[in-house]
Design brief:
The complex is a heterodimer of chains A (80) and B (781). Chain A contains two helices and six strands. With 80 residues, chain A is mostly beta strands. Chain A has one domain: SH3 type barrels (Roll). The longest helix of chain A is centred in the middle third of the chain and has 6 residues. Chain A starts with a strand and ends with a strand. Chain B folds into five domains: 177 residues, 3-Layer(aba) Sandwich (Rossmann fold), CATH 3.40.50; 90 residues; 212 residues, no CATH class; 176 residues, no CATH class; 46 residues, no CATH class. Chain B is α/β, with parallel strands linked by helices. A seven-stranded mixed beta sheet of chain B has the order 2-3-4-1-5-6-8, with helices on both faces. Chain B contains 34 helices and twelve strands. The N and C termini of chain B lie far apart (80 Å). The chains are: A mainly beta (80), B alpha/beta (781). At the A-B interface, α1 and β5 of A face α3, α11, α12, α17 and β12 of B. β5 of chain A pairs antiparallel with β12 of chain B.
Chain lengths: 80, 781
Amino acid sequence: MPAALQPLTSLALGATGTVADIQLPAAHRPRLMEMGLLVGTKVELIRFAPLGDPVEIKVRGYNLTLRRQEAEQILVTCAA
Amino acid sequence: MIEPPPPSNPDPVDPAAGAAAPLRYVALTGNPNSGKTTLFNLLTGLRAKVGNYAGVTVERKEGRLKNGPARREIRILDLPGTYSLSPNSLDEQVSRDVLFGRLPEVPQLHVVVVVVDASNLQRNLYYATQVIELGYPTLIALNMTDVAESLGHVIAADKLARLLDVPVQPIVASTGQGVPELREKLVSLALNPPLIKPRLFCQLPGLFRIEATGLADLLANTFQNRPWQATAEALLILSNENALASSRTHYPPAIQSAVAAARKRLDAAKVDWRGAPIEWRYARVAEIQQAATTELAAPGETFSDKVDRIVTHKIWGTLIFLALMFIIFQCIFTFADYPMRWLENGVTWAGDQVGGFLPPGDLRDLLVNGVIAGVGSVVVFLPQILMLFTFIGLLEDTGYMARAAFLMDRLMSRVGLHGKSFIPMLSSFACAIPGIMATRTIESPKDRLVTILVAPLMSCSARLPIYTLLIGATIPDRVLGGLNYHLDLGFTRFNLFGFLGLRGLTMLAMYLLGIIVALLMAWVFKKTLLKGEAPLLIMELPPYKRPLFRVVLQHIWERSKLFLTRAGTVILGVSIVLWFLATYPRSSQREAQFEARRNAITRSFNPVTLATGPGSAAHQAAALEEQLAAIDQAEFGENLRHSFAGRMGRAIEPILIPLGFDWKIGIGIISSFAAREVFVSTMSTVYNLSDAGDADEGMKTLEQTLREQKRPDGQPVYTTLVAVTLMVFYVFALQCASTVAIVRRETNSWKWPLFQWAYMGALAWTLAFLTYQGGKLLGWG
């Protein structure tokens, strides 16, 4: 049964999901992909910054920060 | 693995060339935070030449390989950190252009060393494979193998070398482990370049391969005799939108239209030409990484993760950030005090020595009051500047800077910028020049420009002398009694302002004023002149590391050298010009007048009169001294008023009166157009001239002199309100020739630096006016 899609930002803190779709505009997508965030990549939601934005994630073993707005356009399936 | 060709075919060394045997040129490249600069320092020692690439202020670091071969000089070029050959910032563009031989100032590369962070292998290999495909003799420096092993990743270097088809040397740059072996491999590659066969790490399926091959043929026909592989270049310009845009002059129209046509065909076939090559490459890179790595432990929480739980915590993180900023200011203001006093005494001593050695006259006057006093009064601030650079160096080298950007991004995004603008702005507290240079990491040109425009509003170290002088002269050295806020931490309570003096608070207020107006102006610019969408933030939070003493020291050394050479050149020049302006034109008529007055007074105290007044001889002698000093003072005042500087100061006095400044301050403002800190040396020139007769008391400190200045009506010139107004003026005015020059170079036009100069000048006058007039209305004047 296919797991439900949800925005990366709605993962629980510390939870891991698998990227299913990156809905960012075509011009913005490549850099995100070059940083290793591809469809099929596992991402862990680490935390939000004290003021609520940006968001910190762990991808391919390193820590990356994104704005909430972009992170919301990354859809993941939750493993658990 | 590539075998070097047999030594039977050594490179011919031209005997006539002698010591200037042909150079071997090596580029050092890799992801940001891969330890590239540490390795560069190890390979070259501390003799690197730091400069800039022509036309842009991307730092160019080049050095000679230490312990290299005897007859061949091998030079190493440290390229800016890069995530990909598809550039997203100026830094990355420069790296790409060097690797593609597009910069005429950089000779052809013989070897490329790619530094790869073993603890972050996949993302680092993404870039490394792109570089290997270019077809240079390539060497992988597999760095931080110790960190990788502590995380449970054991990487078999030989296996990795086989899979990548290039030599791989495991190293730990922070300890130097493996570096001698790396040097050996590097020299052997440089002297005996292997034959390279074309290779591509991503398997291009069907249509994409056809298009790439077609484009590669076209490239190979257009540009001949190039050392890199046409297919790799074709793949890059086909898949990256910025590749053509960022090198428009490089590719002829035939290639540009061929790329456009190929993309159209790929679009029609529903091939994602932007994303697909990235996916294919990552797929292959992941295979290589898995094949070369043995995982000994499941990925767990790293040391950095643990630290970040506190350092980026909602409450603790914010407190730590504020505390750090506060400690930095407090240290700069308190602990730098002692070395500053020593330097001050040293400058006085040097002035006395030269003064005693030379006969009185214009030359002595120039050296003592112009050169030594002028340059000395700026050099005195070196301890504060060193301290600030130490902190910034530490924050950068530990990895905290990225956390600061993470914490501050929300605030920066409110004004339309992002966290990356925070680092240039923070650096601008030391000096706007490195700050503006740091904006090159910002991808969007508009955001970069906005950051450049507002960065000089941060109070840089050149303002520090002015603030310190004016605060020292007019703000009482008191702990703020009225403020008694207690911070309740549950287990303890302490007085938040108990250890903060009124002077520190004034200083903090000046810094805050600059910050607030900078953010406001950024918002205004983003709304009007430089409208654009909010930029994307994609930023790595590198693992924390112990700062390397050497790296921080080198950072401090480079920056203070910059400061001192400025003090030695710009400020020396300005001091001499200023001394000239304040001394000439002389008037023999005026000199004769004052001489006559002096003689008249001396005569009136004749020995007979002195002898008749019983017990008052000493008293009368003192009175004579006093009157003579008053005449000297009057003469210096008169000379200054009639000097070139005095005339200029008085010419602008009408616009200064509403700010509460007199024409002497006007001289200071005029002379500090080139560099703010010159204000301090000007004031010491201006007032030391009028104090030169006071030989008994020696050189007074400038602060005292300022306190003693009186207006014609007997009121002090430097009231607290005037001092604060003057500080406000200096918070905003762009009094720095170097900043103007660097902004011109960064923006490639005079339009922006002139605009910046004008808007900051207008801000300075307006806000100083509001401060002074508002203060007077409130009765503080």
